[in-house]
Amino acid sequence: MKHWIRVLSAVMLAAAMNLVHAADFSVAKYGAKADGKTLNTKAIQAAIDAAAKSGGTVVFPAGTYLTGSIFVKNGVTLNVGKGVTLLGSQDIKDYPVMPTRIAGIEMSWPAALVNVYKQSNAKIEGEGTIDGDGKVFWDSYWTLRKQYEPRGLRWASDYDAQRPRLIQVFDSKQVKLGGGLLLKRAGFWTVHICYSEEITVDGVTIRNNVGGLGPSTDGIDIDSSKKILVQHADIDVNDDALCMKAGRDSDGLRVARSTEDVIVRDSIIRAGAAGFTFGSETSGGFRNIEAYNITVEDKVPVGILFKSAHTRGGFGENIRLHDFKMNGTPVVLRVTMNWNPSYSYAEIPKDVKDVPPYWNVLATRVPKEQGMAQLRDVQIWNIKATGAKVAFEVDSFKEKPATRFAFKNLDIQAAQGGHINDVAAWTFEDTKLALDQPVRVENGDAVRGLPAGSFTVGPRAVKEDPSKKSFEEQDKT
Hints:
Helices cover 18% and strands 46% of the residues. By secondary structure, it is an alpha/beta fold. The strands form two sheets. It has a 30-stranded parallel β-sheet that branches. A hairpin with a 2-residue loop joins strand 8 (97-102) and strand 9. The chain is globular and about 70 Å long.
């Protein structure tokens, strides 16, 4: 009898715990006001902290809630429901500075508006809006950059003009984001997933080109993370839309954490620097990445982009990109290993005093062999592109050519074929290229299967890119 009493007590306790777990915690009960003027950071955080004690859901009565950084805890669901807007403070002091990784290096940086920081089993969902109100941060960036560029400090402006991201998932596991959320006007990147595992982003609309064009307002950045699923994203931004990252230069090579086991699917890119991007932060490498059912519109200059630099290093392997539709996208495929030199290569002017520690990290030299990224074993198939200007712009390293790219069922209509330089074992199958000018292949017999008449073959390129040469000369001084 006592045994059954203990069993019944356990069942009743479990049921009671389930009821507690299902409880809602309204921010209104903790003093939050939906007037768009009152700073609600403490009230919202108090509701989150209360929900964390039992694994509950934080809810908001309809309205606009001004807030600084909030931190979603273990077991908590932050439900931003229909009719609710979380509006980011325009005061950078409302975003506490804390350790993170930003633009490829580990450093202290303002927290995001909404954070999942070293937590697990958390959710951010709903049909409401998270609005960074980021123009004040965009303007501060442009002001600083105009001061820095004449001094040869273009590379430093992105690190010194500290701006809050919209959502950060850092060193966390089993996190879900989506459910119809509208994410807009991020001060910096919109969704940054870093050092994390088992993360799902499902059903987000990102609109950063509202009230201006925000610099570096990336859509979804997956950074040295594993087991990631992104689906049903609708993105309009002013920089990388869907981007794989893995660290920058000496610091990224030190950390050496790859981005791997990622699936991105069923999404549309309306504006951005590229449809699907690897890099330029390639140092930790990419492995086992698949993207498919991606639509790229004409405001996006490049459909598929691999970008790195002479100092990045890293690798990309076992990559599968398929079922892309590009509607008027100017460049179908671009591979560049010398991306944006004024940003990619840090050199501290001699007249600068009081150098921040992270400047020294950025300026740490990387040996040439270690700095060359290696791309290999990439499959690209079922690509439909109409109205393109250029089909291919490929420039790899002679010493480490992009190797074993297999293309199948390409249907590309473009004014120019473009060029393919420094590759090895590239194959094309069932490829249809409607080109006004053929592809120039600068690597002898390394490419097989392009339709007759769609390409010309030249010797391995001997003319150096001026930007490459200037950097190599600079590196010797």
